[in-house]
Amino acid sequence: MQLAQGEYIVGKVKKHWIFILLYCWWIPNLIRYFVEEIVLTNRQFYVRTGIISRHVTAIPLRKINAVNYEQGFFGRILGYGTLLVQAGADFTFSGYHHIANPEKTKTIIEQAIEAAETK
């Protein structure tokens, strides 16, 4: 991933290993587990998907309005959930499923947003 000058990676968001167990029977999902990448920098939240054709979504941290997460029963036991990000003027949340440690991920994103706002 090409980062702008002065931009650095704060953290990478990983899918939980349960994703492999739930979707290993479908090869494209198994490949997606290893190819899909969610990266948080000091300036942006990036989501990269695709093998042959690449789709990149970059959300500036200053445009993120809210970060939430959802966990079902098994998600709470095993430590995975859905990360929900609301950005810009859009009132809907983008959901990123089977994220490992969604509460910790939410905290890291919120800390990065706060640090970006103080600059």
Describe this structure in words.
The structure is a single chain. With 119 residues, the chain is an alpha+beta fold. The chain has a single domain, classed as PH-domain like, CATH 2.30.29.30. The protein is 31% helix and 37% strand. It has four helices and seven strands. It has helices spanning 18-23, 27-35, 73-78, 102-117, and strands spanning 9-13, 37-41, 44-49, 55-60, 64-70, 80-87, 94-100. The strands form two sheets. A four-stranded antiparallel beta sheet has the order 1-2-3-4. A three-stranded antiparallel beta sheet has the order 5-6-7. A hairpin with a 6-residue loop joins strand 6 (80-87) and strand 7 (94-100).
What's the level 1 CATH class? Mainly Beta
Termini distance? 24 Å
Q: Which stretches of 5+ consecutive residues score pLDDT under 50?
A: none
Proportion of beta-strand residues: 35-45%
Largest sheet: 4 strands, antiparallel
Question: Key features?
Answer:
alpha+beta, 7 strands, 31% helix, PH-domain like, 37% strand, single chain, 3-stranded antiparallel sheet, 119 residues, 4-stranded antiparallel sheet
Brief sketch in words of this structure:
This protein is of the alpha+beta class. The chain contains 4 helices and 7 strands; from the N terminus they run βααββββαββα. It has one domain: Pleckstrin-homology domain (PH domain)/Phosphotyrosine-binding domain (PTB) (PH-domain like, Roll), CATH 2.30.29.30.
Task: Chart the SSEs and their pairings.
Layout: E1 9-13, H1 18-23, H2 27-35, E2 37-41, E3 44-49, E4 55-60, E5 64-70, H3 73-78, E6 80-87, E7 94-100, H4 102-117
Antiparallel strand pairs: 1-2, 2-3, 3-4, 5-6, 6-7
